[in-house]
C-alpha cells in the first residue's frame, strides 16, 4: 500500500505542476475555447439575419462569411467546421482577406461578403464611405466597442468567458441587412 500512496502523491504533484507551471498551455486552451465559441456565435447569428432579396440572385447561392485580418487565433479553421451546415437553407463558404484592399476588390467584383468579421486593426484602414458601402448588404461584426463606434454593426465582446453581443443601432438603421427580433432581444445596445 505505501507504494500506491507514493505513486498517487507523485501523480498529484505532477498534475499540480502541470497546471501551475504551464500557464501558457492554459492560456492557449482558453484562446482555443474562445475562438471556437466565436465561430459558433457567428454561425448562429447568420441564422437570424435577413438580407435584401437582390443580394442572392439564385436559390442555390452560398452565404459567404468573410474574415478580415491576420488570423492569429485560429478562427478560420473553426469557421470551416460550419461549411458542412446550412444557414437559412444556404450552404456556407468561408473566405479570408489579409488587407482591406483585398476585401474591397472582392466586394466590387463578385458581389461580396454577406457577413464580415474583422479580426484586428485592418478595419481602421477603411474610409467612412467604404464602410458605408460595405454596410449596405454586409453584416459587419467585430470584437470591440471601438469597432462599433467606427461604423460596425455588431461586436462580440468577451467578458468572463462569455460573449456579449453588442449592437450599433445607428449602423443597422442605415443598412439593408436586418436582424430578427430574437437576436435583438439577446443583444445589448451601444
Record the SSE blueprint:
Blueprint: H1 2-21, H2 23-46, E1 49-50, E2 63-68, H3 75-80, E3 86-87, E4 90-97, H4 100-110, E5 115-118, H5 128-137, E6 139-142, H6 145-149, E7 154-159, E8 162-167, H7 169-173, E9 178-179, H8 181-186, E10 188-189
Parallel strand pairs: 2-4, 2-5, 5-6, 6-7, 8-10
Antiparallel strand pairs: 1-9, 3-4, 7-8
Describe the protein in words.
The protein has about 190 residues and is an alpha/beta fold. The protein has one domain (about 35-190): Rossmann fold (3-Layer(aba) Sandwich). It has helices at about 1-20, 25-45, 75-80, 100-110, 130-135, 145-150, 170-175, 180-185; strands at about 50, 65-70, 85, 90-95, 115-120, 140, 155-160, 160-165, 180, 190. The strands form two sheets. An eight-stranded mixed β-sheet has the order 3-4-2-5-6-7-8-10, with helices on both faces. A two-stranded antiparallel ribbon has the order 1-9. The longest helix is centred in the first third of the chain and has 24 residues, at about 25-45. The protein starts with a helix and ends with a strand.
Mean pLDDT: 83
Terminus-to-terminus distance: 62 Å
Cα radius of gyration in angstroms: 20 Å
| Element pattern in H and E | HHEEHEEHEHEHEEHEHE
Structural class: alpha/beta
How many helices? The count is 8
Total strand count, please? 10
Proportion of residues in β-strands: 15-25%
> How much helicity do the residues have?
40-55%
- For this structure, the quaternary state is single chain
CATH homologous group name: Response regulator
Tally of individual domains: 1
Low confidence ranges: 4-26
- Report the top-level CATH class: Alpha Beta
Q: Describe the global form.
A: globular
Major sheet strand order? 3-4-2-5-6-7-8-10
Assign the CATH architecture.
3-Layer(aba) Sandwich
Amino acid at each position: 500500500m505505501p507504494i500506491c500512496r507514493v505513486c498517487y502523491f507523485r501523480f498529484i504533484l505532477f498534475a499540480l505542476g502541470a497546471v501551475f507551471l504551464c500557464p501558457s498551455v492554459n492560456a492557449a486552451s482558453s484562446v482555443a475555447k474562445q475562438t471556437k465559441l466565436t465561430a459558433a456565435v457567428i454561425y448562429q447569428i447568420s441564422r437570424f439575419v435577413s438580407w435584401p432579396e437582390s443580394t442572392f440572385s439564385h436559390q442555390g447561392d452560398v452565404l459567404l462569411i468573410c474574415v478580415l485580418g491576420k488570423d492569429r487565433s485560429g478562427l478560420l479553421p473553426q469557421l470551416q467546421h460550419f461549411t458542412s451546415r446550412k444557414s437559412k437553407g444556404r450552404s456556407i463558404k468561408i473566405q479570408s482577406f489579409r488587407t482591406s484592399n483585398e476585401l474591397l476588390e472582392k466586394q466590387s467584383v463578385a458581389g461580396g461578403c454577406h457577413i464580415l468579421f474583422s479580426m484586428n486593426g485592418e478595419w481602421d484602414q477603411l474610409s467612412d464611405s467604404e464602410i458605408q458601402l460595405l454596410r449596405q448588404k454586409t453584416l459587419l461584426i467585430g470584437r470591440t466597442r471601438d469597432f462599433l463606434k467606427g461604423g460596425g454593426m455588431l461586436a462580440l465582446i468577451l467578458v468572463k468567458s462569455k460573449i456579449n453581443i453588442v449592437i450599433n443601432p445607428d449602423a443597422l438603421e442605415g443598412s439593408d441587412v436586418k436582424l430578427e427580433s430574437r437576436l435583438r432581444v439577446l443583444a445589448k445596445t451601444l
